[in-house]
Amino acid sequence: MDDIAEVYPELNVPGSAPNDVYSKVMGLDTHGVVRTLGKGASLSLVYGIVYKRSQAKKRDFDTRVELEVQKATSAMKIKMEKKLAEAQKELESDG
Predict the structure, then answer these.
(1) Is 55 in the same domain as 95?
(2) Which domain of life is it from (predicted)?
């Protein structure tokens, strides 16, 4: 570990990270096990939530849909405000 820390100083960061020196020497943690923390410690508890590719794609899709809905809503609001202004002008000119 000391040799790797000397060669790659950017990996010499204290704490649990998937790319720290310890992880480089010992390898990646396996499913349901985080080394040195014992049974019951999950990857999500140590490293935070990691989304599967399908979940990430769904989140990206949902975000795009939400943005498109906001654009459409804003465009409709602008059209309605213009129509309201025109109707108010028409009422003022008739009255």
Answers:
(1) yes
(2) Eukaryota
What are the tens digits of pLDDT across the range 13-38? 655 455 666 666 666 655 556 666 66
| Residue span of the structural domain in which 45 resides | 1-50
- Is the domain of 44 the same as that of 10? yes
Expressed in angstroms, the distance from the first to the final Cα of the chain is 87
Shared domain for 25 and 55, answered yes or no, is no
**Tokens at 68, concatenated:** 């498109």
Report the alpha-carbon distance of residue 69 to residue 24 in Å, rounded. Answer: 45
Torsion angles phi and psi, residue 39, rounded to 5:
-70, 145
Tracing tokens 């590719």 back to the chain, one arrives at 53
Tokens representing 16 are 């649990």
pTM, two decimals, is 0.40
